[in-house]
Design goal:
CATH topology: TIM Barrel
Helix content: 25-40%
Number of strands: 12
Order of helices and strands: EHEHEHEHEHEHHEEEHEEEHH
Bound molecules: fe (iii) ion, zinc ion
Distance between the termini: 29 Å
CATH superfamily: Divalent-metal-dependent TIM barrel enzymes
Largest sheet: 8 strands, parallel, barrel
Structural class: alpha/beta
Length: 300
């Protein structure tokens, strides 16, 4: 199973990300090249990169299984603030260059929010922007993430994702499924085979290059987007286990974006990463109902 989580990119950049991933027993990971919430980025440090490459080779971790996620504030769907739209385009171009330097092959992107405009307008803006960003020569592919449909988010249906892919001139574009978002968007994850058949006929399974594996705090079709720890939400452990073990998606990296755990029940501050324990649980295939307690005991 190719599985990991999102990790920090702070001290030692990708080398730090890798060390964090290894501490979780992961063989894949996803990083932001800076803070997820902002677009401040420092140059890639080649010493850290070279050290990371050596350790990755020792651990048999392929660059195919390292994913980048674009910051949340990038919005290609809204052209009413033209400066922000243009900034999003130039940021993504630079982000592709940064990923090419790092050897990363995939950037996950939230398609964008149309903010007060109909989704068709948002989708048209996204296509126009992506046609400035994506070329056949890019060695790093943009993956459109399937969204929960919170507010005016575009990409909440497979039809919208398909419309964007069809509008982009280059075929150098893929998809990242997010199981929490799909549930919240109204897709029944307990019928995952049916969902994949539908995806295949609309878009083609070969376009799926990454899966965000998250449980959801909310019921199907709630359009909320609040992630839950594996087995503790609406999808439940067996539904998620079935997804991560799907034969057709065997070679696709699975990335956890589940919430950190608080020190005690009821505390707001989330401090302990759950990933080591969730990865272990999914690899074993057995639900650990003491997951939260085990995480607290380990990190305390
Ligand atoms: Fe995302
Ligand atoms: Fe996600
Ligand atoms: Zn989400």
């Amino acid at each position: 199973m190719i599985i990991g989580s999102h990790v920090r990119f702070k001290e030692e950049q990708i080398l730090g990300s890798l060390k964090e991933a290894l501490s979780y027993g992961a063989n894949a990971f996803m990083l932001y090249t800076g803070a997820p919430q902002n677009t401040l980025r420092t140059d890639i440090n080649l010493n850290y990169l070279n050290d990371a490459k050596k350790i990755m080779a020792e651990h048999n971790i392929s660059m195919d299984n390292v994913i980048c996620h674009a910051p949340y504030i990038i919005n290609l769907a809204n052209k009413s603030k033209l400066d922000a739209w243009n900034f999003s385009i130039s940021f993504l171009k630079k982000e592709i260059q940064r990923c090419e330097t790092l050897g990363i092959k995939y950037i996950v992107l939230h398609p964008g929010s149309s903010v007060g405009m109909p989704s068709e307008v948002g989708i048209k803006n996204i296509i126009e922007a992506l046609n400035f960003v994506i070329t056949d020569d890019n060695k790093c592919m943009i993956l459109l993430e399937t969204m929960a449909g919170k507010g005016s988010e575009c990409g909440r249906t497979l039809e919208e994702i398909k419309a964007i892919i069809n509008g982009v001139e280059s075929s150098n574009i893929g998809v990242c499924l997010d199981t929490c978002h799909l549930n919240d968007a109204g897709y029944d994850m307990t019928k995952f085979d049916e969902f994949l058949d539908n995806f295949d006929s609309l878009i083609g399974l070969e376009k799926i290059k990454c899966i965000h594996v998250n449980d959801s705090k909310n019921p199907i079709n709630s359009h909320k987007d609040r992630h839950e720890n594996i087995g503790f939400g609406t999808l439940g452990f067996l539904t998620i286990l079935n997804i991560v073990n799907n034969e057709k998606l065997k070679n696709v990296p699975k990335i956890l974006e589940t919430p950190y755990v608080s020190r005690e029940d009821g505390e707001k501050e989330l401090v302990y990463p759950p990933y080591k324990f969730e990865i272990e649980m999914l690899k074993k295939g057995i639900f650990n109902e003491n997951l939260i307690k085990d995480i607290r005991d380990f990190y305390r």
